[in-house]
Amino acid sequence: MARPISPFSEHSLTEWIGLLQQATTPDERYRALLAVKSLGSLDDAVVWSRHSLRDADSAVRALAAKQLGEGKRLPASEAAPWNEIATELTERLADSDIDVRFETARALGRIRSDDESSKGVLLSLLDDDGIQPLMTASIVTALGERSDVDLTLLAPRYGMLLSHEQAEVRESVSAAVAAWNQHASSLVEHLMIALDDEEPLVRENAALALGRAGVASEAILSALRTASTDEDEVVAEAARESLRRLG
């Protein structure tokens, strides 16, 4: 079977690096940074993402931070100078662009799981009423990756977001809670309410989260029994799965 053609095959790696340094338009530099990650080694991606943290364009800076965070999760990442990179990223936590601040905070959390400054940025973004639903979902997921977040700080915020007026927010938060058992156990009351949400995906996630929370109270079991007859079969099966899990 023929190998798929790379979307960056019109230039060599060396040429893309040259464009990243010399291109006058942000779109060209953005694509060049993607190309370096795609065509080069982890070292190439790290070196040029660090370079691009200082780019004049916020989209390029955000991509650079994102790629550094992704690079930390790769098996071959141990050799990279992560302490130096963390210092450079910390400078971007005060960036004027919200996407840069988010990507930087997420990357720092992956590099230093106990980094207080990046945790504070994520929590402040979560409290920002102007955040778009898609970013809210990403923030919730990023916080879920961390082991240093006090659940007493998250539970009230997640509880409010599970009642958010926008379905996309409720869906994203319920999905994140369902994926992280430690969050589910502190949100049982909110999840029981979410079982009656108008959106099937929210109901499904709430049912799954209740099973994973591991709290087998009669109120929860009763709510799940009711949900097991939901008109949406996917929701009903999620409730039945949780009932089996809770025994």
Could you give a quick summary of the protein structure above?
The protein has 247 residues and is mainly α. It is 68% helix and 0% strand.
Count of all domains: 2
Count of alpha and pi helical runs: 15
For the report, how would you describe the main beta sheet?
Answer: none
Low-pLDDT segments? none
Secondary-structure element sequence?
HHHHHHHHHHHHHHH
Quick one: how many beta strands? Answer: 0
Beta-strand percentage?
Answer: under 5%
Q: Mind telling me the C-alpha Rg?
A: 21 Å
Essential attributes:
single chain, 247 residues, Leucine-rich Repeat Variant, 2 domains, 15 helices, 68% helix, 0% strand
What can you see in these coordinates?
The chain has 15 helices and no strands. It has 2 domains: 140 residues, Leucine-rich Repeat Variant, CATH 1.25.10; 97 residues, Leucine-rich Repeat Variant (Alpha Horseshoe), CATH 1.25.10.10. It is 68% helix and 0% strand. The protein is elongated and about 65 Å long. The mean pLDDT is 91. The protein is mainly α and 247 residues long.
